[in-house]
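dumping this here so i dont lose it
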């Protein structure tokens, strides 16, 4: 099973969005969010958005980490944790549900859960 990421890809500044196929022209309009926020283009790399994480399932990404409920509480509070694997972005899940992103580097999973949502 895969998430359907078909539609119109829109770039506003350094932000990338996915809008539905039948989206009318947005030219000249001020739009807060024209579709699903996919991520940000930063210094020749792509940083995935929190909204994208919430639409994906563990089987739909290359890398994911399943946390226990107690470990998830630390993640939701903004804590980092030790992990092993390939360097890169990981979908953080608990009981099959996506929570957000983590970035593995040097054996430490850096927390990319939005600061405004942390407990």
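and the seq i came up w/
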């Amino acid at each position: 099973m895969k998430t359907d990421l078909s539609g119109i890809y829109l770039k506003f500044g350094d932000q990338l969005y996915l809008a539905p196929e039948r989206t009318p022209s947005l030219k000249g309009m001020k739009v807060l969010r024209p579709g699903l926020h996919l991520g940000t283009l930063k210094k020749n790399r792509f940083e995935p958005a929190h909204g994208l994480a919430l639409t994906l399932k563990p089987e739909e990404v290359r890398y994911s980490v399943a946390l226990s409920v107690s470990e998830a509480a630390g993640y939701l509070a903004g804590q980092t944790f030790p992990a092993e694997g390939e360097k890169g972005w990981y979908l953080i899940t608990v009981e099959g549900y996506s929570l957000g992103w983590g970035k593995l580097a040097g054996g430490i999973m850096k927390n990319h859960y939005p600061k405004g949502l942390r407990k």
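The first strand starts at residue 8 and ends at 12.
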